[in-house]
Amino acid sequence: MGTSISDAAAVKFPLVFGLDTFGDVTHDADDRPLSHAQTIRNLVDEGVLADQLDVDFFGIGEHHTDDFPLSAADVVLAAIAARTKRIHVGSAVTVLSSDDPVRVFQRYSTLNAISNGRAEVILGRGSSIDSFPLFGYDLADYEELFEEKVNLFAELLKGGPVTWKGNTRAALHNQDVVPHTEFGPFPTWIGVGGSPQSVVRAAHYGFSLMLAIIGGSPARFAPFARLFHQALKSFGRDPLPVGVHSPGHVAETDEQAREEFWPRYLQVITHVAETRGFAIPTKESFMYEVGPRGALFVGSPETVAQKIAATLPALGANRFDLKYGMGGLSHETVMKNIELYGTQVIPRVRELLK
Amino acid sequence: MNRIGVIGAGHVGPVIARLALDAGYGVAIAGSGSPEKIALVTQIVIPGAEPRWTADAVAGADLVVLAIPLHKFAAFDPALVAGKVVVDAMNYWPATDGVEAAFEDRRYSSSEIVQRRLAQSIVVKTLNHIGYQDLEDARRPAGSPDRRAIGVAADDLHAAAAVAEVIDRIGFDAVRLDSLSAGRLLEPAGPVFGALLGRSEFERMLSAKAA
Fold first, then answer.
1. DSSP state of B188
2. How many CB atoms lie within 10 A of CB B144?
């Protein structure tokens, strides 16, 4: 069954390394939470540092809670874009089902203009559902909302006047939607957590595949990458990149990374356990996830690099986005993580995969 | 028991189908539409399973696994599974999936409400409380020291025994709960939901909560 992956790997996409954040509120030296405003200003500095260290992508996942006050990711990304020249900036993810595809297109097309063509969008559900009640959507309609809105978003990306009709927003008749993109459609991905039919949908629209691997063995996603490549083929499309998004934390040593990350991870997961259906982690389950068969990329630069270098080929993927930070870590700790990721992890993975 | 029909080709259905195939069962799987719609998914992600219309997946099955989103259950035709033993792998989980009026009556476990609607079937609650992302990795042969437990709640003793055998064959210790009503211990926010526990710890969590 490994044949499809080797087929796809024959088309080599360049390796891409990103950093994603959900805007987790950081704490000060006395372990008190910083204000939302300061968290957001720090986030801009984190994006700028990532650019200076040659990280390829900086992504912000839309959230709407006190712990993750990043409801307007595109505004923060625009600030980062204005202070950088190289790094790509994008959502990770945009909760399209509870948004208006026309507005999402307009905001990211504007970001694309500000950044000289460095904008990307990852569409998905995300694992938080706060935007549904906030904007008056019913979670039971999730599938129809996503299906229709992805369809409209794909139409908008083509450029030119759009004619579209559906049940979830007003119809469009030969509507010019601005700003026009300068260099054609910006890269769009669909974030997939575990539904094979979402993989097929990404292929259907010609969007790239971002595998959100936040628990369990990364290797179990290999069939999804094969499915994506086969589905692209069956739709008569050219191969497209596959990325992996996983949480983690990098410090000087394995022990330090675990000691910094574990108490915050325990606290955050415990807090969201009931609404997300996560079990409360134990030290044992944490160590399993940190190990080679788990989904947490926590450790020294060498440990994390080895794990990324093992994961990408196993999944036929060419991109890895580390979801860094965890509510309660300090801004300084998080900056150190970014520094080690940029200066040590990325070069080491490139070396290992040469 | 030789053939299992899985209804639902979303997050959960394909994982259960794969486990059943690995354990030597014949497996047919149905999505919300035609077999063609899930043919590619089946071929790549569940090789060996047969994509079918729901009625056909059920027809040849000794056991049916219902793994559709619970909000779609109201539109599910009970006649499709009449006369069958039906595993209810669904969860009522309002914090994550939204509120469903039919499942808001907290005098009953969600599987009792499912049973009431599937009056011509025998409902067994199981395979709902371990995350689909953990099911494959957590499988172990019988007798392994780190084998995990899965709860099986049913009113019908024969159906419970048959399903417990399936759970054992796919790689877990089956822990029997003596009624569908007791199945509420397996629900979201219950003592074992989302956790990976060995038999003794699983039983301890259940009895601590029940006491």
1. T
2. 12
Q: What is the pLDDT of residues A125-150, one digit of tens each?
A: 766 788 999 999 988 888 899 999 99
- C-beta neighbour count of A180 within 10 angstroms: 10
Tokens for B85, please give them: 């033993």
Q: Taking the alpha carbons of B175, B177, B180, B181 in that order, is the dihedral positive or negative?
A: negative
Structural tokens at position B21: 């195939």
What residues in A contact B196, CB-CB < 8 Å? Answer: 279, 285
Whole-number Å distance between alpha carbons of B178 and A27: 48
ipTM score for this prediction: 0.91
Nearest to A197 among B10, B47, B96 (CB): B10
Angle (CA) B6 B7 B9, round 5°: 95
Q: Which single residue is written with the structure tokens 């089956």? A: B174
Q: Count CA atoms closer than 13 A to B10's CA, side-chain side.
A: 14
β B85-88/A242-250 pair status: unpaired
Task: Tell me how far apart the terminal alpha carbons of chain A are, to the nearest angstrom.
Answer: 24
Among A188, A204, A206, A187, CA closest to A196:
A204
φ, ψ (nearest 5 deg) of residue B146: -105, 30
pLDDT (tens digit, 9 = 90+) per residue, A270-327?
Answer: 888 767 767 789 999 999 999 999 999 999 999 999 999 999 999 999 999 999 999 9
pLDDT, tens digit (0-9, with 9 covering 90-100), for B1-57: 899 999 999 999 999 999 999 999 999 999 999 999 999 999 999 999 999 999 999
Indicate yes or no: CB of A4 within 8 angstroms of CB of B44.
Answer: yes
At the fourth CATH level, the homologous superfamily of domain B3-210 is NAD(P)-binding Rossmann-like Domain (3.40.50.720)
Other CB atoms within a 10 A radius of the CB of residue A214 amount to 16
- Residues in chain A with CB shorter than 8 Å from the CB of B131 are 215-216, 277, 279
Question: B80: which 2 tokens?
Answer: 């499709």
CB spacing of A280 vs B40 below 8 angstroms: no
Task: Please give the interface size between A and B, counted as residue pairs whose CB atoms are below 8 Å apart.
Answer: 82
In angstroms, the Cα distances linking B119 to A7, A41, B76 are: 50, 58, 13
Nearest one of A190, A223, A71 to B44, comparing CA atoms:
A223
Nearest chain A alpha carbon to B100: A140
pLDDT confidence of residue B98: 80
Q: How many CB atoms lie within 10 A of CB B164?
A: 20
Query: Where are the domains positioned within chain B?
Result: 3-210
Q: What is the fold, at CATH topology level, of the domain defined by A3-352?
A: TIM Barrel (3.20.20)
